[in-house]
Amino acid sequence: MTGMDILWLSNPTLAYRDWQAREAAGADRRPFAERSIVQHRAMFEHFRRHLLARGTSVASFGTDDIEAFWQTTEAKTYSQATRMRYVKLLDRLCRHLVFAGVREDNPAAGLLASVRWPEEEPTPQYLDATTDQRLQAYLQSPTEDLASLRSRAIVAIFLGTGITAAEARVARMGDLHPDAAPSYLFVPAQGPREARTVHLSDFAEPLLRDWLARRRALPIKGDRLFTLRPNGQPITDMSLGRIVSEILNTIGATDVEMSPRTLRNTFCRRQLLAGLPREEVSQMLGLASNRTCDRIFATIQQSAI
After folding, report:
1. Rg of the chain's alpha carbons, rounded to an integer?
2. Measuring CA to CA, which residue among 169, 158, 171 is closest to residue 234?
3. At what angle are helices 63-70 and 80-100 packed, to 10 degrees?
4. What residue spans of the chain are helical by DSSP H?
5. What is the residue extent of each domain of the chain?
6. Hey, how many other C-beta atoms are within 10 angstroms of the C-beta on 81?
C-alpha cells in the first residue's frame, strides 16, 4: 500500500475525499458533478459512522454490516433509488480498496444483482389536508411538560418549515426568529443546499416561540435548538424519527410513513395547494430542481380527478 492508501486506515474521511478528487468517476469514466460529489461524501460519512458504531472499519466490514445498515431507522425510509445509490457507492469503494490492497474482498458486489433502479418514482408520503389540520390543532394544545413541548416543537418545525432531519439536527437557537415580522427560520447552507430563510407557518409560531424561550433558560451546553442531554449532545435521526412517530400515532395517523420526510412533504403540498409556484416552493425546501414539487403536485392533480 502507498502512503495515501494507508490513510484509509487512519483517516477514511480524508482518504475518500482524496480518492474522489483524484480518481473517482461514474460508469462512463466521466468525473462526477460537484453536486454528486457532495452527496457521495455525505453518504460515505453516514455509512462510516455506522461502521464506527459497530466497531468495524472500511477495511473490514462485511455483508452483515451492510445488512445492519439497511435496518437502521433512517435507512428503512430510503427509496429504492437511494438504496441503489448506496450499493453502487459501496461497490465502487470496495473495488478500489481491493485494488489498493486495503481489503481482500468486496462485500457489496453481490448486492448489485439484487438491487435495481425503480422503473417509476414511488408516490411521495404526505398527510392529507384533514390530517394536517388535525396535527396542527394537536401541536397548538397546551402543555407544560418539557419533553412534550420539545417533541411538539420538533414536529412543528418539520411541519411548519419543511426542513430536513439533517437541518433540524444542526439548527441553533440564533437561527429561529419567532418574534420577527414575519417570523422565520434561517437555514444555513448544508451539502448541496444553499442557505435560505423560511417563514414560519402561522400554527407553528406560538409553539416555537414558547420552546425557544424554554430552551434559552435551560442549563444546556452549546446553542443547539434541539439536544438529547444537558451536555449539549445533538439529537439523532433515530430520536427525531421516534418523536414524529409517537405524535402521529397519538393523532391516529398510522397509514403513512411516520417520518420527518412525510412532514416535509406535507409542508410542500400545503404550499402548492395554496397556489404558490413550484419554483418558489422548491426554493423554500432548499431544492435545486422542481422534481420533488412536481411529484407532489401530481398527487394534487390525481385527487382532483
Report:
1. 21
2. 169
3. 160
4. 3-10, 12-22, 34-53, 63-70, 80-100, 129-140, 146-161, 165-170, 204-217, 237-250, 260-273, 278-285, 291-304
5. 3-113, 129-304
6. 13
Q: How many angstroms separate the Cα of 164 from the Cα of each of 154, 159, 203, 260?
A: 11, 10, 19, 7
CATH number of 129-304: 1.10.443.10
Give the DSSP per-residue string, 231-275. T-PBPPHHHHHHHHHHHHHHTT--SS--SHHHHHHHHHHHHHHTT
CB of 8 closer than 8 Å to CB of 97: yes
State which amino acid sits at residue 186: F
What size, in residues, is the chain? 305
pLDDT tens track, the chain, 305 positions? 565 678 899 999 999 988 887 775 544 455 666 667 878 888 999 999 999 999 999 999 999 999 999 998 888 877 777 888 899 899 999 999 998 899 999 999 888 766 665 555 667 899 999 999 999 999 999 888 999 999 999 999 999 999 999 899 999 999 999 999 999 999 998 766 789 999 999 999 999 999 999 999 999 889 999 998 777 778 888 889 899 999 999 999 988 888 999 999 999 999 999 999 999 999 999 988 888 999 999 999 877 65
- Asked if 3-113 and 129-304 have one fold, the answer is no
Residues 6+ apart with CB under 8 A from 38: 191, 192
The CATH homologous superfamily for domain 3-113 is Tyrosine recombinase, N-terminal domain (1.10.150.130)
**CA 111 – CA 150 distance, rounded (Å):** 40
pTM score, whole prediction: 0.66
